[in-house]
Amino acid sequence: MAIERTLSIIKPDATERNLTGKINAMFEETGLRIIAQRRIRLSREQAESFYEVHNERSFFNELVDYMISGPIVAQVLEGSDAVAAHRKIMGATNPAQADVGTVRKEFALNVQENSVHGSDSAENAAKEISFFFSDADIVG
Ligand code: GDP
Fold first, then answer.
1. Residue 61 CA to ligand 1 centre (angstroms)
2. Which of 40, 54, 70 lies closest to 132 in space, CA to CA?
3. What is the pLDDT of residues 54-112, one digit of tens each?
4. Cβ contact 95:105 at 8 Å
5. Where in the sequence numbering do the catalytic residues fall?
6. Ligand 1 center to 58 CA (angstroms)
7. Substitution site in 48, 66, 93, 128 for ligand 1 pocket (most atoms within 8 Å of beta carbon)
8. Which of 42, 49, 86, 134 is most buried (CB neighbours < 10 A)?
9. Does pLDDT of 1 surpass 90?
10. Ligand 1 centroid distance, CA of 62 (Å)
11. pTM over 0.90
């Protein structure tokens, strides 16, 4: 399988509960490697831009309010089949439907405050990585 990179975000509900290390341990245990990392607070404009694809959805404003409610940790993960491997360990969007052993089953509060974001395709991963990081920030 190809070595890929994907964009991971530890969301505000998880940074608030001091879960960054526990969540990253789960990623590392599946063979993903953190090769770039920034703890930041998104502006409203940045959050709207990052989630632009959802701007017609009923929950868009609520999602943006949540994503700017506290710090996030944006990171690049690298590994074999990283996009799919990361989505698998994250679990389903709604923690009620997430498999046992996934981050969202373990830690998510509800369908919105679901602790983590992960790119859903290699194409989106490239776009989302460049949203937060320049090439010089990424040390593989
Ligand atoms: P993901 O790829 O699993 O993160 O899911 P989506 O791309 O469908 O949605 C993006 C984010 O929007 C999710 O991770 C949630 O934080 C939020 N979200 C998704 N569905 C809902 C919903 O029905 N209600 C609310 N309030 N937020 C949602």
1. 12
2. 40
3. 999 999 999 999 999 999 999 999 999 999 999 999 999 999 999 999 999 999 999 99
4. yes
5. 117
6. 11
7. 93
8. 86
9. no
10. 10
11. yes
